[in-house]
Design brief:
Length: 186
């Protein structure tokens, strides 16, 4: 149980730090993060990419999704089904509606993804070894534990911490991308 209270405390601190960022700075950092993400070969060569739709002060992903759609590649977004995430293809932003947690997710008529090359994962905090701190619901850990996919966390440099308390259900992330750099988790 120790790890859970440590996680909650760290999550609260990191969310306060992230939420204090102005929207203008979020837009600037998100553009720099997009530029750094596009340097990763696995991302550039991917044909089907699972994204998240940003909430609050998360790194913005809308421009990334629009660019991938314009390249004729598959953009996949999660739909919460019970305790799991089911990724579905979207054709444009009109394929989305408000779902669980007031997050935009694919409408019911969107086709289920057959293949995912890369998963872009939302992050509250992360350590250089790829230990990720999410919102505490475990959706992404459950999803990542069931698929063979390159996982990439988009985060602000200030969200990288020395270590994240973890347990056996936590899945490490392959790549970390910030406004300053993109690096493979060690």
């Amino acid at each position: 149980m120790e790890s859970n209270s440590e996680k909650s405390s760290l999550r609260k601190t990191l969310l306060e730090k992230r939420d204090s960022t102005s929207f203008d700075l979020i837009k600037i950092a998100s553009r720099q993060i997009q530029t750094n993400l596009e340097k990763i070969d696995e991302y550039k060569n991917a044909q089907s990419i699972a994204f998240y739709y940003p909430i609050g002060s998360e790194v913005l992903t809308q421009d990334l999704m629009l660019k991938i759609l314009s390249l004729g590649k598959e953009v996949l977004l999660p739909k919460v089904i019970g305790e799991d995430l089911e990724f579905r293809k979207i054709k444009d932003m009109n394929s989305l509606e408000k779902g669980n947690f007031d997050i935009m997710e694919p409408k019911d008529n969107c086709e289920k993804a057959e293949k995912i090359d890369v998963a872009i994962v939302p992050t509250v905090g992360i350590s250089p070894d790829g230990s990720r701190l999410g919102y505490g619901h475990g959706y992404y850990d459950r999803f990542l534990s069931k698929v063979d996919v390159v996982s990439i966390a988009l985060t602000y440099e200030k969200q990288i911490v020395k270590s994240v308390p973890s347990d056996q259900n936590d899945v490490k992330i392959d790549w970390i991308v910030t406004e300053d750099r993109a690096f493979k988790a060690q």
